Amino acid sequence: MKKKALHIVLETERKDTVFSQDEPPVGDFSFNAKVADVFDDMVSRSVPHYEEMQRMVCELAQDFAKRNTNLYDIGCSTATTLLALDPVLDPSVKFIGVDNAPDMLEKARQKIAQTATQRPIELQMADLHKGLYMENASVVTMLLTLQFIRPLYRERMMKMIYSGLNEQGCVVLIEKLTSEDTTFNRLFIQHYYDFKRRNGYSEIEISKKREALENVLIPYRLEENIQLLRETGFKHVEVFFRWYNFCGIIAVK
């Protein structure tokens, strides 16, 4: 069967200047109104191959989504993934977007309202450190989300996802990584900052954002993420994307 074309909805008109020289210090990074307003531009210029990763996540979701089940996007941010999935998944699949940032959810509502979608998309605000109830899920997506959950709570989060998934259901992760080998870790970070420079970020912006994320974004090594998924009980775990210190992982129950 021929699959429908994917369309990634990104609002990049408002440029990300959150960490520019002209802006005051912001402390720890948070998904506040200022970030939500420019998030699509921020993530497009800060995450390598962001649109291609979105496309791959949607293709994999198409492979596993079942009629009359739920699809959860945990850390749905501005609903980019949900809106990309909307035209390509069966209308009987219920979409549930979850985020802990009210400003991001408000931006998601605005983007959803601007589309012609007929699918009811439920948006939930939840503290991912306190748990999340899920049921009848065939697909769970978490793009650049697990890395923001404190390591102490990641095992519990994965167990909740596993419990809410149906048999043969899948979780699709995009994560930033660290490496055990200090040489590779240093080189990958250098190449990543080169990527950000090519996309217009200044040295000050790169430095200020790195400091703001230092205590908030805690990346695992690839091996740690895979171990977490296997120890949770997932039968099949595979890497489907890798760019220096970013990766995509799919795990099937």
Structure description:
By secondary structure, the protein is an alpha/beta fold. Helices cover 40% and strands 21% of the residues. It is built from eight helices and eight strands. The protein has helices at 33-46, 50-64, 80-85, 102-113, 151-164, 182-198, 203-213, 222-232; strands spanning 70-74, 94-99, 121-125, 137-143, 165-178, 220-221, 236-243, 246-252. Strands 1, 2, 3, 4, 5, 6, 7 and 8 form an eight-stranded mixed sheet that branches.
Sketch the major β-sheet.
8 strands, mixed
Radius of gyration: 18 Å
Report the end-to-end length measured between terminal Cα atoms: 25 Å
Overall form: globular
Ranges with pLDDT <50 over ≥5 residues? none
**Count of distinct strands:** 8
What level of helicity do the residues show?
25-40%
Strand content: 15-25%
Q: What average pLDDT do the residues reach?
A: 92
Order of helices and strands: HHEHEHEEHEHHEHEE
Number of helices: 8
Structural class: alpha/beta
